[in-house]
């Protein structure tokens, strides 16, 4: 029997170690299952859009068909958008539990719609999700500490270390022992993930990358355990020191960094966008309507040949001032977004030096569940909203009748934009 | 000097000599100071920003020119949720809920621009607040200081001589416990001083403050007892340490994340799209103001005409369009309330279930007491949402009433060149609208919300103490 097999047997014969490995495997499997259940729930909610939407739009269709007014169709029709989860999303739910992944928009001012949230229970979101990323980033280091803090000191305390080191190939002994533990812990952690990932149809490249990253993260903690142990104190002191390091590296520095990043990159614009956009939209009722139309046509020549307004209310004016309102806050919107991107970039930069943050950042990036993914979804909503506007404008600006069949011609949101 | 005091002194001397322990205590004190300072300034910053935004929104509302009241219904109002006075100690769900809401006629908007959607992924690692330090970090420190208390004596074989010299088992265990409890007090006090500073704010009242102090005191006492208990039961120091670390990881880190997942799967919430579609469906059923033949509005019209003794809406002394708006708003708001009640009930069921997990993890129970007493739990947010909806309804109905009373039906339906001017009413009306002021919960409400969690912690403390008594008896019998 090869020596490493003996080591493996030795490891599993220790009740502590075997229990720890089994527990890690169970937690990892539970986290993968919980993540997959959550993503399945989200997919179910997305699949339920179509029937609900069909019912809703049928009612609008029924009453608009009487007036054939494209303006009414634009005003009353909400169009669904959604952010379908990636196959990997189960492993790192990221922001998907707090950020909306379904949002309905209509062809009015987008800035008054795009920041709307969905229903979620903040008390449930507060502690963070129980997903694979959590098991990897938070729990796996604790198991690593449990298995590695006494790798050598345990033998010292049992009085065997000197004898073992006197034997030929002693250097390789510690190496072999560490390897066996490393492989065992990596397997306990990643096998449930592999099963979930294959089941969910994750690309092989991403799977390999995550397993490698998980292994590297464990190696970081093993290295730390080795460093602490090499100072030659007892197992107990090692365990205490390592647990304190865990607290600092996984909980305290990230939370402290969050405070610092948010403080140094203030984003105050959100509420200002909302207030300013409303002000600019409603100002249209106070100024000559031609002024609104001039400003709109200056930016949108495509519809500038539309017939002029008459005395009566017309939806083209209404839609035009909504769009003018959006355009009036464009600079603030850019500043707001830049602020959010600066925050995300700062956190990612921290990830390069702090493994806990780095692994979490990488996982949520690969899974498409981070702030960047959320902003990308907003971009897709905006692109869709532009198509919606163009579609309705072609009717409203030229007074083309909007019949029941025209509802079917409205742009459909495509999950990829 | 009693044996117990001697033992406690000896234990404290040993801790003082342990450089790692001293460093850890100092680091924790530093962390507490940082947490109190950042939480405090953060809260001041938020409170200041929200107050400033609220002033700007109020000023914008009052500065509106002469308008048709229905324009103002859609101009709407922005309100900002004020922070509760104790939020600097435990911000609870505040970063996870939007802090501003747009209120307008016949629509219910979400509260937007919550911190969580405006922060990097780091926000999900937790919040550095005094509450977090006391909930998570202090128990870990106590573990490091206390795991060996009795196990060390057992492992080194010094326990038996101590007993033989006449020290009673209970005085040994109580001495160790007293030493650990003293340390818990020392490391807990700075956070509590910070809390007292925070609690000195206007608006904070004694009941919830006392409840928070009692709950954290009981929680740290529970950890001290539990650590001494494990140290008494386990024969080897390392086993005591690993067992305690495992307990800490499960109760402080793991269960608080597992419980919400279970609750979320068992009591799912209806999402906004489904709710909106359902409300629209019910509305069509109850009365569709777009439909000229709608039975509800036909009946409404007949009622109004009969009440005023006229045959045509043109002959009414009030503007019929204003009456229609009032009726329409009443119908939609009743639906909003019904669906909101259902949603709140589902939230409450989820949160009750999570609190049930407090039977497995006292940390969950403590979080609940802490947030509920600080007014930063979901109940606190719900209070804001409910008051916002009441204010929205009141504002919109006042404006609809203005439309009924101040704008004539003839003007309201006119489309000639001067009609727009005649439909408008004076700007002074907007200045007379009440502003939104959040009515804070009474201290009794906050205390009542926290009592369940406190009961769970107390139950834990009693159980742990009984177990420690039993373990001590066994120690003496050896």
Automatic annotation (TrEMBL), chain A:
<protein>
    <submittedName>
        <fullName>ABC transporter permease</fullName>
    </submittedName>
</protein>
<feature type="transmembrane region" description="Helical">
    <location>
        <begin position="206"/>
        <end position="228"/>
    </location>
</feature>
<feature type="signal peptide">
    <location>
        <begin position="1"/>
        <end position="33"/>
    </location>
</feature>
<dbReference type="Pfam" id="PF12040">
    <property type="entry name" value="DUF3526"/>
</dbReference>
<feature type="transmembrane region" description="Helical">
    <location>
        <begin position="182"/>
        <end position="200"/>
    </location>
</feature>
<feature type="transmembrane region" description="Helical">
    <location>
        <begin position="132"/>
        <end position="151"/>
    </location>
</feature>
<keyword id="KW-0812">Transmembrane</keyword>
<dbReference type="InterPro" id="IPR021913">
    <property type="entry name" value="DUF3526"/>
</dbReference>
<keyword id="KW-0732">Signal</keyword>
<feature type="transmembrane region" description="Helical">
    <location>
        <begin position="240"/>
        <end position="261"/>
    </location>
</feature>
<keyword id="KW-0472">Membrane</keyword>
<keyword id="KW-1133">Transmembrane helix</keyword>
Automatic annotation (TrEMBL), chain B:
<feature type="transmembrane region" description="Helical">
    <location>
        <begin position="128"/>
        <end position="150"/>
    </location>
</feature>
<keyword id="KW-1133">Transmembrane helix</keyword>
<keyword id="KW-0812">Transmembrane</keyword>
<feature type="transmembrane region" description="Helical">
    <location>
        <begin position="162"/>
        <end position="189"/>
    </location>
</feature>
<feature type="transmembrane region" description="Helical">
    <location>
        <begin position="241"/>
        <end position="259"/>
    </location>
</feature>
<dbReference type="Pfam" id="PF12040">
    <property type="entry name" value="DUF3526"/>
</dbReference>
<keyword id="KW-0472">Membrane</keyword>
<dbReference type="Pfam" id="PF12679">
    <property type="entry name" value="ABC2_membrane_2"/>
</dbReference>
<protein>
    <submittedName>
        <fullName>ABC transporter permease</fullName>
    </submittedName>
</protein>
<feature type="transmembrane region" description="Helical">
    <location>
        <begin position="446"/>
        <end position="468"/>
    </location>
</feature>
<dbReference type="InterPro" id="IPR021913">
    <property type="entry name" value="DUF3526"/>
</dbReference>
<dbReference type="GO" id="GO:0005886">
    <property type="term" value="C:plasma membrane"/>
</dbReference>
<dbReference type="GO" id="GO:0140359">
    <property type="term" value="F:ABC-type transporter activity"/>
</dbReference>
<feature type="transmembrane region" description="Helical">
    <location>
        <begin position="209"/>
        <end position="234"/>
    </location>
</feature>
């Amino acid at each position: 029997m090869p020596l490493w097999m003996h080591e493996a047997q030795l490891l599993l014969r220790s009740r502590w170690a075997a229990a720890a490995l089994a527990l890690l495997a169970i937690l990892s499997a539970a986290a993968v299952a919980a993540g997959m259940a959550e993503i399945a729930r989200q997919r179910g909610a997305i699949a339920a859009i179509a029937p609900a939407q069909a019912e809703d739009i049928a009612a609008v269709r029924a009453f608009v068909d009487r007036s054939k007014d494209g303006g009414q169709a634009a005003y009353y029709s909400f169009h669904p958008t959604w952010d379908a989860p990636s196959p990997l999303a189960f492993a790192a739910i990221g922001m998907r539990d707090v950020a909306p992944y379904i949002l309905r928009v209509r062809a009015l001012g987008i800035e008054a719609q795009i920041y709307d949230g969905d229903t979620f229970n903040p008390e449930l979101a507060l502690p963070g999700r129980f997903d694979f990323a959590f098991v990897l980033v938070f729990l796996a280091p604790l198991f690593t500490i449990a298995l590695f803090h006494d790798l050598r000191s345990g033998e010292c305390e049992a009085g065997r270390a000197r004898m073992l080191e006197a034997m030929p190939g002693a250097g390789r002994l510690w190496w072999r022992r560490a390897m066996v533990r490393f492989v065992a812990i990596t397997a306990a952690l990643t096998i449930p993930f592999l099963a979930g990932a294959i089941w969910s149809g994750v690309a092989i490249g991403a799977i390999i990358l995550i397993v490698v990253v998980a292994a590297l993260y464990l190696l970081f903690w093993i290295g730390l355990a080795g460093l602490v142990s090499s100072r030659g104190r007892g197992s107990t002191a090692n365990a205490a020191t390592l647990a304190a390091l865990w607290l600092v590296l996984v909980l305290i520095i990230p939370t402290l960094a969050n405070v610092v990043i948010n403080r140094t990159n203030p984003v105050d614009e959100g509420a200002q966008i909302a207030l300013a956009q409303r002000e600019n939209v409603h100002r249209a009722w106070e100024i000559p309507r031609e002024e609104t139309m001039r400003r709109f046509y200056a930016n949108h020549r495509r519809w500038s040949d539309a017939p002029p307004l008459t005395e009566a209310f017309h939806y083209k004016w209404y839609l035009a001032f909504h769009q003018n309102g959006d355009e009036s806050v464009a600079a603030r919107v850019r500043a707001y977004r830049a602020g959010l991107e600066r925050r995300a970039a700062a956190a990612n930069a921290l990830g390069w030096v702090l493994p806990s943050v780095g692994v979490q950042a990488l996982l949520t990036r690969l899974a498409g569940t981070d702030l960047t993914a959320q902003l990308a979804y907003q971009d897709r909503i905006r692109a869709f909203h532009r198509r919606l506007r163009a579609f309705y404008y072609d009717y409203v600006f030229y007074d083309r009748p909007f019949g029941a069949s025209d509802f079917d011609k409205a742009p459909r949101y495509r999950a990829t934009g | 000097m009693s044996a117990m005091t001697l033992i406690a002194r000896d234990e404290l001397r040993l801790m003082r000599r342990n450089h790692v322990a001293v460093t850890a205590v100092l680091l924790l004190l530093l962390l507490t100071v940082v947490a109190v300072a950042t939480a405090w300034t953060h809260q001041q910053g938020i409170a200041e920003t929200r107050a400033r935004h609220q002033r700007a929104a109020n000023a914008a509302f009052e500065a509106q020119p002469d308008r048709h009241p229905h324009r103002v219904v859609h101009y709407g109002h922005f309100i900002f949720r004020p922070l509760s006075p104790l939020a600097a100690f435990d911000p609870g769900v505040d970063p996870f809920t939007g802090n501003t809401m747009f209120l307008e006629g016949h629509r219910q908007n979400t509260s937007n621009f919550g911190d969580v959607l405006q922060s990097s992924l780091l926000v999900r690692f937790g919040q550095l607040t005094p509450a977090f330090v006391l909930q998570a970090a202090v128990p870990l420190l106590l573990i490091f200081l206390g795991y060996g208390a009795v196990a060390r004596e057992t492992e080194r074989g010094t326990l038996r001589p101590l007993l033989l010299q006449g020290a009673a088992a209970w005085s040994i265990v109580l001495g160790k416990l007293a030493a650990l409890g003293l340390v818990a007090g020392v490391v807990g006090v700075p956070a509590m001083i910070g809390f007292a500073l925070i609690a000195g704010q206007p608006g904070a009242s004694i009941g919830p403050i006392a409840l928070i102090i009692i709950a954290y005191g009981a929680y740290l006492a529970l950890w001290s007892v539990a650590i001494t208990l494990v140290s008494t039961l386990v024969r080897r120091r390392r086993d005591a340490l690993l067992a305690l670390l495992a307990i800490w990881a499960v109760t402080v880190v793991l269960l608080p994340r597992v419980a919400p997942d279970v609750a979320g799967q068992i009591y799912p919430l209806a999402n906004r799209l489904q709710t909106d579609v359902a409300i629209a469906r019910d509305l069509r059923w109850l009365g569709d103001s777009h439909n000229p033949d709608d039975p509800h509005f036909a009946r409404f019209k007949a009622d109004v005409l009969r009440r005023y003794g006229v045959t045509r809406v043109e002959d009414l002394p009030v503007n019929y369009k204003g009456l229609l708006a009032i009726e329409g708003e009443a119908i939609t708001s009743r639906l909003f309330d019904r669906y909101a009640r259902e949603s709140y009930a589902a939230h409450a069921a989820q949160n009750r279930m999570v609190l049930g997990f407090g039977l497995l993890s006292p940390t969950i129970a403590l979080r609940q007491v802490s947030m509920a007493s600080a007014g930063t739990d979901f109940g606190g947010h719900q209070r804001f949402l409910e008051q916002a909806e009441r204010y929205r309804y009141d504002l919109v109905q006042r404006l609809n009433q203005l439309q009924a009373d101040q704008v004539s039906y003839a003007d309201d339906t006119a489309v000639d060149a001067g009609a727009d001017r005649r439909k408008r009413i004076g700007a002074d009306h907007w200045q007379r609208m009440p502003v939104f002021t959040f009515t804070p919960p009474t201290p009794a409400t906050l205390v009542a919300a926290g009592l369940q969690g406190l009961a769970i912690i107390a139950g834990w403390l009693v159980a742990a103490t009984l177990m420690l008594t039993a373990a001590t008896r066994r120690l003496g019998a050896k």
